[in-house]
Amino acid sequence: MDAAEAPAVLARARQGDSEAFRALVERHSQSLFRLAFRMTGNEQDAEDVVQESFLRAYRQLGRFQARADFGTWIYRIVANCSVDLLRARLTRRERPRGEWLDTAAEQSASDRPNPERLAESAEIERQVRRALDDLTALERAAFTLRHYEGRSIHEIGQILGLGTSAAKHSVFRAVRKLRIALEPLRK
Fold first, then answer.
1. Considering only CA atoms, which of 134, 170, 132 is closest in space to residue 151?
2. CA–CA separation, 166 vs 187, rounded Å?
3. Which CATH class is domain 1-99?
4. pLDDT for residue 161
5. Predicted structure pTM score
6. For residue 128, what are the contacts with CB-CB under 8 A and spacing of at least 6?
7. Residue segments in the chain with a per-residue pLDDT below the cut of 70
8. Residue 86 and residue 131: Cα distance in Å, rounded?
9. Which 3 state secondary structure label does DSSP give 174?
10. Mapping DSSP to helix (H, G, I), strand (E, B) and coil, where does residue 107 land?
11. For the chain, which has fewer Cβ within 10 Å, the N-terminal or C-terminal residue?
């Protein structure tokens, strides 16, 4: 489905056409999974968030404002589901089953650095994961949308239901906290 077909497919999905909704799912699922994974830090949680988000979207499709962008709308649902999951973790005092920066596992055997470098990278990965885990759910969402997804401050505000100033402030707070937490790595 290309951009020109999207409005027609969306209109059919809003009228109850399950094949049209399936086309929307196929079009957006990869980018939504990336967002959920970056926010939750875990593949299984990300899959659950995306599935829950599509279920919510399907149930609320009749209330979707056709003048809005479906991609932004579904991104907002994924961001909100991710924030809900992160807040639930905090309530249960559960730490994420993080897979944040699994770059070492993705490298081929010939590209792997020496053992000392691997140990150093693993320690850096742990510290970055800890720093990301210490952000509030809103800060992590804003940071992820800005620095991993490349979204503008205006888009972040739309997705998270914040004003532009609040979205900018959330990104700023996240970056400031990460800089402070990761300062020892610079030495």
1. 170
2. 33
3. mainly alpha
4. 87
5. 0.68
6. 100, 101, 182
7. 1-5, 66, 92-114, 118, 120, 187
8. 14
9. helix
10. coil
11. C
